[in-house]
Design a protein that fits this description.
The structure holds 2 protein chains of 2 kinds. Chain A is mainly beta. Chain A is globular. In chain B, α2 packs antiparallel against α3 and α2 runs parallel beside α5. Chain B is rod-shaped. Classes of the chains: A mainly beta, B mainly alpha. Chains A and B meet through β44, β47 and β59 of A and β1 and β2 of B.
């Protein structure tokens, strides 16, 4: 079996945005503290060994790192029809088959297939307790047991482009599944997947077979089309696969494709829609040989210009005929319920302002659900959020928004088109303007035979909402978090009292008295806050511990003492932004950017942190559309998610790259430079102050741009008038190799030690070039004998190639970490057939060329490059290095393995100075003797059993404690934890005996006082004698 | 001395017991009683030997630090260069003692005042202590306790200031 088992037994982080996560309690005991309190104590991870004291374990479990699991955007979903059922079966665009608990939205089970198109799920059908999926472009047929998520069977099918699959019933029993491919149709048993028969389709070169239909009569109809010419209708016998009837050349010169335009209704009647003649074509598959034209005007219907009409029919059960009623979509918001019965087409009901329609069946009753906007649908509202003017215009055509974002769902009886009473669900989406995209209805009969239902709505921003009558949101899931593309961590703001104090110093002085009064007032506020805090403590102490909830919401957000909780700002591929509190995983805000098209590239930058109090923190997101190349800036407050008042510059040209400078304007916002495709630079913010500063330091600002398509690296120097001139260019010929990654250093990185102490106590100085780029190339020739990877270390200012090496017989994908004075990369060795690590370290030697300033323009001596390679027993899916505030703590590499584990590997193991033969000096230096293999020890997994599916990246951020580094791993799941690479050297141990130490201390103080007194008495007595 | 005093105090004396030889013991010669020594213990003689003794003592004091050195050397050799509690304590003592001696140099010099060659002795004392201190320092150095190498000051080296700013990357 190729699928990785990813059961969801682990605790889930809770539903996004609905409730705070449950605090896990491993047992009774006094260890249950509110998270904030524990964060202050900075509890360590549970030690991997067994037999740790209970209190420690409980504490650790409580604040154990959190994981949230996702499934991705839905492709297929099935809401089971019986009332008591508790699960939804979904198949998603992330190649996941999963069952969701319909009461809570939690994942009951989940199977994650390959992330490549090989794992793509093409079809899903539900039959009883089994879910049948077709994946890998029709190559694999699987059957799942939906209760526990087990695999019933798996069959691999013949090649051929997959068209459609359908369940086939024979005499009231559904026994088979039919799979239609481009050139063949095959029938499989549902019980074991074995193939019953396979038949080739005639004229498969010219004919596109696209539709499959059966209704329990022992035959399967297969419809093929020769575009703009005719239709072929084949009828196969279910028993032996013989073609019992072949109707070819049903003239349909107007028809280009069957998908969406045609549907089968009633007892095998094909209904097609023609846009050109504004009419419906009807043809019975079993009896007729020609298509009958019915003009729409006869029904008083018209459809919008330029809109491709769609027909939506339903077949509740494959052993009985389809319903004779069907929906005809005439415009994006106009649907009609039609009926074709006994050769007559009748119009049942019109739905204006409908956003989505769906059919649902329970027992004998089939209903149509229609989702409408409560107010009028308007074309793209003008009070739109974003500045990207041109983007907006292009999308105006298709975007119809509901002005107040309130929607109704109503049920209609299909036979008559009558509205069912008391079946309205009203719900309101967020104001950010995401439209509903999919509607799934679960209908059930209540005891009094009336119809009840629940609805699953998926919106444009990949949010799933499960609704209950009369509009209660049972749960919601933010599935866009399954594809995080960019992530930053921002410090939480200070508490009100702290902020008040800060503000006092921030304000301008206005006289002695004024200052004094201000001081008094702020002290008063502090006192107030303190008493409130005491009162709360007192109040909480009286309540049983289990009831104390430390609910985190946007109002009580405050930084903890050690800055361990932060705000994670996540940008997802769907264009939705999230603000997530890192310690609990609560989504505090979300914002959907409607203009973002799928496949856009994002760059998120923190322009102002929370450190400059009266000024709100500020993040800037650069979004660049892949097709139009146009970009826009979205500026927002990362703590509250609100759009900033600051107007970003309108970008007229496509932006190639950005540079965040350390210089600030008078409002403490860092200056962002954007370089466009004419190599002109736009500054944001562009105040006079900034421009003046820029003019001063323009000569020291450089850009580098890497064009992977042309294999060109080029450097630009900023001029005073904010234009640039090219200063260097490096061409890497694309015929031989292509650039795959370019990594600079993190600008926030702080290196504490400028060198390394040798065994003889001399210093080997590190070459810490902040402008250094590591460029990795892969050969275009992928033959295993000739393939190679190249690594270039290039100075970003001068373009000087500081080091280059070619690794023969090596292949990507290359994962690389570039930090301090080292580069670690990992690749596949095709000769030895294994994964290898190579580490490069750069040293200046025992003398520093210039200890006070680093200028790339003045570096006469090339650094010494040391290099060593190691064997790694696994492939890698992501890699990152830990980072701490001052850079004193030793570094670890965090390596995401395809198994979902994160390995924390000490950098000391990847050290090119590891000696092959240990000497006195190397021992003095604590160098580990070289051994080629780096082992994976399970105790180095920082996420224990909380595996992260399809990990794509790891983000690290420093905390206020030097020993502690915050880690977020993202992929299909999101996982947050803390790591302590050098143990917690700056935190008191968890089992630190406060009582003993303080009692000894007090005892000693008392003893001193008493003895002092005694000594005095004795002296006095002696004096009297 | 008692006899001498007596001899001086009494002007005359009566010999009651006749000598066995019947001859009196010759008062004229003024023979003293038993144990009486004619010769006076010369004041000058006592002074002479005191001086020598003093000198010797002073030399002892002055040479004491120098005499310690071979012993210290031996201890140093035995202690080795590893840093652990006992060698560290020894080195501390070795360093502390000469330091203490040097601090109480004036007292020592006062003690040497009586000596005629006190300048030389003082110098020797100083040199001896200096050597002891040097030895302790050498030991410290050998044990790596002295911050004499650049590596010892590495933690205080400030990162060089960045002169240029670069930014960019793969074209978005």
């Amino acid at each position: 079996m190729k699928i990785k088992w990813a059961s969801s037994t682990g605790e889930c982080w809770g539903k996004a945005g609905v409730s705070p996560p449950r605090l896990l309690q491993a047992g009774p005991g006094p260890a249950v503290l509110p998270p904030a309190a524990a964060a202050r104590r900075a509890c360590p991870l549970p030690p991997p060994q067994r037999g740790a004291p209970l209190s420690r374990l409980t504490l650790a479990r409580l604040f154990s790192p959190r994981r949230q699991q996702y499934v991705g955007k839905l492709k297929f979903a099935s809401l089971e029809a019986s009332q008591g059922s508790k699960k939804l079966i979904v198949a998603t665009e992330k190649n996941v088959v999963a069952a969701l608990n319909s009461r809570s939205g939690e994942i009951l089970w989940r199977h994650v297939d390959k992330g490549t198109p090989e794992g793509a799920i093409d079809a899903m059908m539900i039959h009883g307790q089994d879910a049948i999926t077709v994946s890998n472009a029709g190559r694999i047929l699987r059957s799942w047991e939906t209760n526990i998520g087990g695999l019933n069977w798996e069959m691999s099918l013949d090649t051929g482009s997959f068209q459609v699959a359908s369940l086939v019933g024979l005499q009231d029993v559904v026994k088979y599944v039919a799979v239609l491919k481009k050139a063949a149709i095959s029938l499989h048993y549902l019980s074991n997947g074995h193939q019953k028969w396979v038949e080739h389709l005639p004229e498969s070169e010219s004919t596109q077979y696209q539709l499959l239909y059966s209704h329990g009569t022992g035959v399967i109809h297969v419809l093929g089309i020769v575009p703009q010419s005719h239709l072929n209708i084949l009828t196969f016998s279910v028993e032996d696969g013989e073609i019992t009837k072949q109707v070819i050349r049903v003239a349909a010169p107007w028809l280009k494709s069957l998908n969406g335009v045609c549907s089968v209704v009633g007892e095998a009647v094909l209904v097609c829609m023609d846009m050109g003649t504004h009419s419906l074509y009807v043809c019975s598959l079993e009896t007729e040989q020609e298509m009958k034209q019915i003009p729409l005007q006869s029904l008083d219907l018209e459809f919008a210009d330029g809109f491709q009409p769609r027909i939506l029919a339903t077949q509740p059960n494959v052993i009985s005929p389809s319903r004779t009623q069907f929906f005809l979509q005439l415009s994006p918001s106009h649907f009609s319920l039609l009926q074709y019965k006994h050769g007559l087409l009748s119009h049942l009901r019109d739905f204006q302002q409908a956003a989505l329609v769906s059919f649902a069946t329970t027992g004998e009753k089939t209903v149509a659900a229609v989702l409408t906007c409560r107010s009028e649908l308007k074309p793209g509202s003008s009070d739109d959020l974003h500045a990207g003017g041109t983007l907006e215009d292009s999308r105006k055509q298709e975007s119809l928004t509901c002005s107040n974002q309130t929607y109704n769902i109503n049920l209609y009886l299909v036979e008559t088109g009558q509205r069912l009473l008391d079946t309205t669900i009203t719900f309101t989406l967020e104001q950010s303007g995401a439209k509903p995209q999919q509607l799934y209805i679960q209908v059930f009969l209540k005891k009094d035979d009336s119809v009840g239902y629940r609805a699953l709505v998926q919106t444009e921003d990949h949010m799933l909402i499960f609704l209950q009558q009369p509009g209660k949101v049972v749960w919601s899931r933010e599935e866009s978090l399954a594809e995080v593309v960019s992530l930053e961590m921002v410090d939480l703001p200070l508490t009100g009292a702290q902020a008040e104090l800060e503000g006092e110093f921030g304000k301008k002085a206005d006289g002695l008295l004024g200052m004094f009064l201000k001081r008094l007032s702020s002290q008063l506020i502090l006192l107030q806050a303190w008493t409130a805090h005491l009162w709360k403590m007192f109040y909480d102490a009286r309540k049983p511990r289990s009831q104390i909830k430390n609910e985190i919401n946007i109002d009580n957000l405050a930084r903890d003492e050690f800055n361990l909780q932060k705000m994670m700002v996540m940008v997802t591929a769907s264009g939705k932004l999230f603000g997530i509190e890192s310690s609990s995983g609560t989504i505090l805000w979300k914002q959907y950017l409607r203009n973002v098209k799928p496949g856009s590239s994002f760059k998120l930058m923190v322009q102002r942190t929370t450190a400059h109090f009266p000024h709100p923190p500020q993040c800037t997101l650069l979004v660049k559309d892949r097709e139009t190349k146009m970009s826009f800036l979205y500026v927002f407050n990362p703590i509250f998610g609100k759009r900033s008042q600051v107007a970003p510059p309108v970008l007229k040209r496509p932006i190639l790259q950005t540079l965040l400078l350390p210089i600030m304007d008078q409002d403490y916002a860092k200056v962002l430079l954007l370089i466009d495709d004419e190599y002109k630079v736009t500054a944001f913010p562009a105040t006079k102050n900034v421009l003046r500063q820029l003019e001063e330091i323009a000569h020291s600002i450089f850009f580098y741009l890497v064009d992977a398509e042309q294999g060109k690296l080029s450097g630009f120097r900023l001029k005073k008038d904010l234009t640039t001139e090219e200063s260097w260019e490096v061409i890497i010929p694309t015929e031989v190799q292509r650039i795959v990654t370019v990594k600079g250093k993190r600008s926030s990185e702080h290196v504490h030690s400028q060198g390394r102490v040798m065994g003889d106590r001399s210093v080997l100085y590190k070459s810490l070039n902040p402008n250094l780029l590591a460029v990795v190339t892969e050969s275009t020739d992928t033959h295993h004998e000739r393939t190679f990877i190249g690594i270039y270390l290039i100075d970003g200012v001068t373009g000087r190639i500081i080091h280059s090496s070619v690794q023969k017989k090596a292949k990507g994908p290359v994962h690389m970490v570039h930090s301090e004075n080292w580069v670690v990369y990992q690749y596949w060795n095709t000769k030895a057939r294994r994964n290898e690590f190579t580490v490069l370290e750069l040293y200046e030697g025992t003398e520093q060329y210039n200890a006070t300033a680093f200028s790339s323009l003045d570096r006469p001596i090339l650094p010494q490059v040391l290099q060593q390679s190691y064997i790694f027993p696994s492939a890698i899916s992501a890699m990152e290095a830990t980072i701490t505030e001052r850079g004193i703590t030793s570094r670890h590499l965090l390596i995401g393995l395809p198994s979902g584990a994160i390995l924390s590997l000490p950098k000391a193991l990847l050290d090119p100075r590891r000696p092959e033969i240990p000497t006195e000096q190397s021992r003095e230096e604590n160098l580990i003797p070289y051994s080629p293999d780096v082992q994976i020890h399970a105790e180095r997994f920082i996420n224990y059993n909380q595996t992260i599916s399809r990990m794509r990246g790891i983000y690290t951020a420093p905390s206020g404690l030097e020993s502690t580094c915050l880690v977020v791993a993202y992929g299909l799941d999101i996982y947050q934890t803390r790591v302590y690479p050098s143990k917690q050297f700056d935190v008191l141990k968890d089992d630190y005996d406060y009582v003993l130490i303080s009692s000894v201390l007090f005892g000693l103080v008392f003893a001193t006082m008493i003895t002092k007194r005694l000594a005095q008495v004795k002296l006095l007595n002696r004096a009297w004698r | 001395m008692a006899a001498a005093v007596r001899g001086r105090r009494f002007k005359w004396s009566l010999e009651l017991a006749a000598a066995p030889g019947g001859r009196p013991r010759g008062a004229a010669e003024g023979r003293g009683p038993l144990g009486f020594a004619e010769r006076q213990l010369g004041e000058g003689g006592v002074h002479e030997s005191d001086k020598i003794l003093m000198e010797k003592r002073c030399w002892d004091v002055a040479l004491a630090p120098l005499k310690q050195i071979p012993m210290n050397l031996f201890i140093m050799y035995m202690a080795g260069n590893t840093i652990s509690i006992f060698p560290a304590m020894m080195v501390c003592m070795m360093g502390w003692r000469p330091l203490q001696a040097l601090m109480s140099l004036s007292a020592t010099l006062k003690a040497l005042e009586s000596s005629s060659r006190r300048a030389l002795q003082g110098l020797v004392f100083l040199v001896g202590n200096g050597l002891g201190l040097a030895l302790a320092l050498y030991k410290c150095q050998a044990m790596g306790l002295l911050p004499t190498r650049p590596s010892d000051w590495l933690a205080f080296v400030a990162p060089p200031q960045r002169m240029e700013f670069t930014g960019g990357g793969l074209i978005l």
